[in-house]
Design brief:
Number of helices: 5
Structural class: mainly alpha
Order of helices and strands: HHHHH
Helix content: over 70%
Oligomer: single chain
Length: about 130
Amino acid sequence: MKLRQICLRLPAICIMGVSWYLSSQERVPMPGFKDSDKLVHLVCFGILSASWSLWFSRESWCRAGWSSWKNATLCTLFTSVYGAVDEFHQSFTPGRCAGADDWLADSLGAAIGAAACVLIARLFRKNVQALH
């Protein structure tokens, strides 16, 4: 595996590591508004899903057709499954509880992050086609 490929794959692994660590803590600082944790789940898991997108080739994202949606579905699936595992893990941490609502926020964030990658890939493909 080339150094570039390793570097592109590190963000998802690092984000998962930080998430796992935070799930092991009794308390995690949150913004002070109602249900702020749902927004944090949404954003963090959206970023994780987008980080998974780096595991796929640029060509597979920019190819016309369903290829980019297949990638997005896999990114969403990986992130959603990780969210479920992380919620389960969190249930063993004193002072914390696992919640289906947190997992739903994780999964929605994952879908939004992956869809953003599809849109970015389409914009990139249109710009490249305009140059030719």
